[in-house]
Specification:
single chain, alpha+beta, Neuraminidase, five-stranded antiparallel β-sheet, five-stranded mixed β-sheet, 9 helices, 23% helix, 29% strand
Length: 578
């Protein structure tokens, strides 16, 4: 092995390779450096790296790797060997840094020119190597400077354009019609709006439901919107719980006749519920993000989870239960907890993080254990999820007969979906991450306190980069789970353009394979995911762009279709096999 020695020849090669690659990358029209930018922010805590900096970094890394190989590989370097070393250097850097979208034609030209130069021309100019190196250095500086000037020119052109329209934006407030939600539902006639074919596999019918006044955009201020509603099935009847606590039902057979007739069931929910933010919604109401969280039916009982306020200005997630009665539902507590998280005033959440959306609240009946599985978030309190003395940031199992509680899973942020696996032995959970980092997790109910990492580990980022300094002790969001002793997610998602926001999950009964439907909110996509038999990895993900926030998905076995709750319109989606 050769020892490393500095020489003008090596410096000349380094500058030529650097210049060739920065020309190749900067002229690739569809170059995508977002993954590298993400890594700079994630691992190096550098949030200001622009495209020029990343281009220089990638080009310099390729040049250094190639020169290092040339120095330490002690063999005769003919054109073939030189080509293999160079293509290896370029491939290693581009694939490792996940650089995509580069021009294939420019890549081929780059891969040919550099080995030819090093093999045939470098020795020819050896007498002038010093002067050649200086010229190459000046040329590389010129290229970089030109890129910087072009970048600044584009910025200047936008900022000095006197015809640029500058305007103030205002939200369009919907004027309520003065009627109650129950009255509006009784007057509204749902209609079939359209039918879609999803990838030649599924048919989706969209039915409008009452009313635009109650869609996600109108239910609260930005990022504080109330959940629109949840579905549960009882024999032929489909129950619908609104985010403000009203309960309606309709006959599932109505779907076949293309009509939906809502019937209201009165209840004592607003009397027993201590959280007075739940019945209220609106674009100007900051407390609107506190809502009901799920509806579930077991035998003849209906269970309702919601964000309660067990003590003044302090909230958690609890469950009520009532015997099914189509005239009046008399709820009583099923699961109560004195532990809660104090609401932080709006202007102080940076120092004292709080988010009422991070409540969890999904319920799942476990027949084998005659128990209710409940997901609970931590409302952005970073200390609760890793504290075994707390039931927040956990998935808990509540015995229906004895009320005994066990904790199969801890270290959860905002678990929004739960479903049994097709064999009924395990549970799949969907975890709504921070800025990216949505997860699907595999849970064994026969274990206790299996740790899924939040907030010590997450593949997402804090929305506010200052959180790493302010709350890094409890919430560093390390990018590995297993390195820190936590369970790795079965699947995780990055933050995609327009957002993601994983929500519910359910078995895909249309498929004979190990398939599951997974819904998203800001992503407005429905996934059809195939897992291997032992749930160690997925084999395929089909994504269908629905164009709606999907809050809930429930299977209606008597009609062999799914009901999806769409929050944007709002609407019901009826998903059928095609």
């Amino acid at each position: 092995m050769k020892s490393f020695k500095f020489s003008f020849k090596n410096l000349n090669i380094l500058l030529v390779v650097f210049t060739a690659n920065i020309l190749f990358l900067s002229n690739s029209s569809f170059l995508d450096l977002e993954n590298l930018k993400y890594d700079f922010k994630d691992f190096l805590r550098i949030t200001t790296a622009d495209e020029i900096t990343l281009l220089i970094f990638v080009s310099l890394l390729i040049a250094l790797l190639y020169v290092t190989f040339l120095i330490y590989i002690n063999i005769n370097l003919n054109i073939a060997v030189n080509f293999l070393i160079y293509i290896g250097s370029v491939s290693i850097v581009l694939s490792t840094l996940r650089v995509t979208g580069f021009s294939r034609l420019l890549l081929i030209i780059n891969l040919l020119i550099v080995p030819i130069y090093v093999t045939f021309f470098l020795d020819q100019i050896n007498r002038f190597i010093n002067a050649s190196t200086i010229i190459t250095f000046i040329f590389s500086i010129f290229i970089v400077n030109n890129l910087i000037l072009d970048s600044n020119k584009n910025i200047d052109e936008v900022s000095v354009n006197s015809n640029l329209g500058i305007f103030d934006s205002y939200y369009v407030n919907l004027e309520p019609n003065g009627k109650s939600k129950v009255e509006n539902f009784s007057l509204f006639q749902p209609q079939l709006m359209e039918t879609n074919i999803l990838g030649g596999k599924y048919l989706l019918e969209r039915y409008s439901i009452c009313c635009r006044e109650y869609n996600a955009g109108n239910s609260g201020p930005p990022v504080r919107q109330k959940s629109v509603g949840y579905i549960s099935i009882f024999e032929n009847i489909i129950f619908y719980l609104t985010g403000t606590g009203e309960i309606f039902y309709f006959d599932g057979n109505d779907i076949e006749s293309k009509t939906i007739n809502f019937n209201f069931i009165d209840s004592n929910f607003n009397k027993i519920n201590k959280n007075k933010n739940i019945p209220i919604s609106g674009q100007d109401f900051d407390g609107s993000w506190e809502s009901t969280k799920d509806l579930m039916i077991i035998d003849n009982n209906i269970y309702l989870s919601y964000v309660n306020e067990p003590s003044n200005n302090c909230i958690n997630t609890e469950i009520l239960v009532a015997e099914i009665n189509f005239e009046y539902l008399d709820f009583e507590p099923f699961f109560e907890d004195s532990e809660c998280v104090i609401r932080t005033p709006k202007g102080e959440t940076k120092e004292k993080p709080f988010n009422a959306h991070l409540a969890g609240g999904k319920m799942l009946y476990i027949p084998e254990k005659n128990s209710v599985l409940l997901s609970r978030g931590g409302f952005r309190n970073y200390e609760r999820a890793q504290n075994k003395d707390s039931l927040l940031g956990k998935i808990i199992l509540i015995d229906i007969e004895t009320s005994k509680i066990s904790v199969p899973a801890m270290g959860t942020r905002n678990p929004q979906g739960l479903t049994l696996t097709k064999d009924g032995k395990y549970v799949l959970e969907t975890e709504h991450g921070p800025n990216g980092g949505d997860e699907i997790n595999f849970i064994d109910l026969n274990k206790e306190y299996v740790n899924y990492g939040w907030p010590l580990s997450s593949y997402g980022d804090h929305w506010d980069p200052d959180y790493y300094d302010l709350h890094g002790e409890f919430a560093p969001l390390n990018k590995s789970h297993s390195d820190y002793g936590f369970e790795e997610p079965l699947v995780y998602f990055l933050q995609y353009s327009g957002g993601h926001g994983i929500s519910d999950i359910d078995i895909n009964f249309f498929s004979n394979d190990n398939n599951y439907f997974v819904a998203t909110m800001n992503g407005k996509r429905l996934y059809d995911i195939t897992f291997n038999e032992d749930y160690t990895e997925y084999s395929k993900i089909d994504a269908f762009s629905i164009g709606e926030r999907i809050r809930d998905i429930e299977y209606y076995p008597n009609g062999n279709f799914y009901v999806l709750v769409f929050e944007t319109t709002p609407a019901f989606g009826i998903l059928k096999d095609y």
